[in-house]
Amino acid sequence: MQTFFQQVINGLSLGSIYALLALGYTMVYGIIKLINFAHGDIYMLGAFWGYYVINVWHFNFIAALLSAMVICGLSGVIIEYFAYRPLRHSPRITALITAIGVSFFLENGMAYLFGSNARDFPQIVKQVNYNIGGVRISNIQIQILATACILMLLLQLIIRYTKMGRAMRAVSVDNDAAQLVGINPNLTISFTFALGSALAGAAGVMIGLYYNSIDPLMGMTPGIKAFVAAVVGGIGSVPGASLGGFLIGLLETLVQSVGLSAYKDAVVYVVLIVILLILPTGIFGKNVKEKV
Amino acid sequence: MTTLLKVNNLVKKFGGLTAVSDVSMQINSDELIALIGPNGAGKTTLFNMLTGVISPSSGTITFDQEGKKISLNHKKAYQIAELGLARTFQNIRLFKDMTVLDNVLVAMTNQYKEGFLQAVLRFPKFYQTEDVIVKKARNLLAIFDLDKDMHKRACNLPYGLQRRLEIVRGLAMSPKILFLDEPAAGMNPEETAALAKLIRKIQKQFHITVVLIEHDMSLVMNLVERIYVLDQGTLLAEGTPKEIKQNKTVIKAYLGEEG
């Protein structure tokens, strides 16, 4: 039982990272129906930015986190502007392939500029372990969980109560009608990319702190897992993405704890297949029938 | 009375088909105008050009903003909306998943002055602007008897109320001109009569110009001040309801040749 709770704690910490990433996937999909495969690489950029500012400018955790969010938010807006906006009225597959291209560009660009070797993420937060009834929980885990929850709460407030949040929801329901009530769709889409990418940047800094190692290809697997999380939760649904992220994180650690470490990635993809078979719209997804 | 919108020789071609050909019209302030015509006459296409959904093949659309002449030809739909041209759709296009109140608030986006941080961190100033705007939205909803449903999701409203909500959403933009595309479609005679009353009321109360496309002749003839008749993309006639009723070409277009 103790091991079980231990794994739940570990799973929630990892899951909160996936949840932050999945939110970016789901918001971008909700608004322009694009699966942004470069999203995982934004998370890598966030981790590298954190690595750089902590080592060179001696930022603390909060400053590194916030600056990474700003930088990643900007990168998201720039990528959208140059790579996806010119394709706004092209078939969806064109934008999708472009997203894969952007992903390769970021991964190999970073490897070319800074080298492809893995490096140690500076440990700015000294790890302290607490023991609660035999379950070990570290201050880093608490920090990750708390930060992720605060960010998700902020996101909810933005989506619910700001004019930009309302505009985002309106554009995602009906882009044309939104324009006709005076909403600038490009501005709204840029804002969505900024939000999603900022969350990915935060996740990047936190994973650096948690796993202690970063490299230019680190965004690939978590990116795909976060995508699976978004699909499990129901792509386009914001609460769904959070829930999906936590579920995938839990599943992964539980699989590891029963001695199937080698299969932890495979299990996530099996879940994707099963979800697509029995619940194609995900947990919170809407059943939208396309009109012919 | 000043001219708000001037349309000169407007043409729209879809491939080989001319949907609207050489239409010129003039829309004045504080007017109630109807655009009528048989199915496929090009009425909605004309609306779409005026509100920036599609761009005209040729011709000009000029909007008068307090004496300043602004060409709408190359403006984006949201810019035209910001200038004060609001519309509804023939097939209702509400933001279905959002609440009734949010549907109205979203149309008031440019009336929000509150900053981003103020809204997220819920500063007192945010509550002040929010209060003013929500109050305005509630008042508009109350005029259309929608205030009691304001926390329902828009898609859960009955059909007639959805049509009304779309009009409220248009009004929330504080428009100069409100275009209504078949506002009475699918309504029964009582609902239609009530709607006619409401349209007249809001037109007087908010001092706006209302332009409506309508098939229901009883609604049009008793409600509007001026009628434009469109047939096969061309303007057939223009005049008061009385003049239109007696116009030979209009009667021919509607009823066919005299037997």
UniProtKB/TrEMBL annotation, chain A:
UniProt similarity note: Belongs to the binding-protein-dependent transport system permease family. LivHM subfamily.
Membrane topology term: Multi-pass membrane protein
Keywords: Amino-acid transport, Cell inner membrane, Cell membrane, Membrane, Transmembrane, Transmembrane helix, Transport
Subcellular location, record wording: Cell membrane
Keyword Manganese included in the entry's annotation: no
One Pfam family, short name: BPD_transp_2
Full protein name: Branched-chain amino acid ABC transporter, permease protein
GO MF terms, alphabetically ordered: L-isoleucine transmembrane transporter activity; L-leucine transmembrane transporter activity; L-phenylalanine transmembrane transporter activity; L-valine transmembrane transporter activity
